[in-house]
Amino acid sequence: MSSLMGLSGCGESSADEASTQQKDELITVGFSQLGAESDWRVANTESIKNSLTRENGFELMFDDAQQKQDKQFIAIRNFTQQEVDCIVLAPVMETGWDTVLQEAKDASIPVVVVDRQVKVNDTSLVTAWIGSDFSKEAKVACEWLKSYTEAKGIKPEELVVVDIQGTLGATAQIGRTNGIVEASAKNGWNLIAQVPADYTQAKGKEVMANLLAEHPDINVVYAENDNEAIGAIEAIEEAGKTAGTDILNGDILVISFDAAHSGLTKVLEGKIALDVECNPLQGEEVEKLVKAVKGGTEYNKYTYVKESAFAADNTVESVTINGEEYDITPLTQSILDSREY
């Protein structure tokens, strides 16, 4: 009996050693995600989690900051103390990161930033970044609006535009807000209000209801993500108005960003006129980048993900940004069905 027990003990010890060895071979990653405020964010989280798996060679430690920067500071310090191999950070806002990222650098832990960017005095605190060109997204949306209204015979001064902003200080908010401000000044549009709604549907609805009460002549809503746009549409309809593309007959034209399934459904219904994609499926690029960083192989400091733009109709087939042409895709059911998020 004791002999059998001894054999069993040796077997368990060997299994434990093998398990420990296998774990030691994994790349340990601490992922600080800013929250779960939108459909886009949920898809972004799942994409990264699905790539940084044990099967792919990773041990993932995940923290949801619930849109609080101080919680991200705590998470990053915890990752640093646990001596992870790499930190992946999706920041709440751009500023305020110098101290905590310096601590990670001092511990020789590389930091990969995803989606939004960070502004630090020492750019070496960020090993690499993966995300979207938010300024370009805004230019695509604004150039489409210019072309669309010209095609419909709507004069620039007839546009009454409101900007439902994202979380103030976030990279996406800065890029998209700057885009509509610059385009309005350049094209002579009446940009009458800018109010943040933190990328949420509930606040998007609340903000839009208040704006309609103050400015009943609004005919263009520039919402900085799909959830805000959907909330705005709810408020528009509850006010007895129509979200659509026929401005000349009283419709309120809604422009959105993200092109998540929920937003594109509203495009197919004709309630969102244009939805500019912000691709959340960044996991595969994050996986490749972390492996390259840890393996000492070549990688890009900045990686932009591929994106498209989808419209409710084919009035505008393309726009030109800085000499480069971008297709505007009329949305169909088959395109919507094929979407991954």
What does this protein look like?
This protein is an alpha/beta fold and 341 residues long. Helix content is 43%, strand content 20%. It contains eleven helices and 15 strands. It has helices at 2-24, 39-51, 69-81, 98-106, 134-151, 171-187, 201-214, 226-238, 261-268, 283-295, 333-338; strands at 27-33, 58-64, 86-89, 111-114, 128-131, 160-165, 190-196, 220-223, 253-258, 274-277, 302-304, 309-311, 318-321, 324-327, 329-330. The strands form three sheets. A seven-stranded mixed sheet has the order 7-6-8-9-10-12-15, with helices on both faces. Strands 2-1-3-4-5-11 form a six-stranded parallel sheet, with helices on both faces. Strand 13 and strand 14 form a beta hairpin. Helix 3 packs parallel to helix 4 and helix 7 (201-214) crosses helix 8. The longest helix is centred in the first third of the chain and has 23 residues, at 2-24. The protein is elongated. Mean pLDDT is 93; it is low at 1-15.
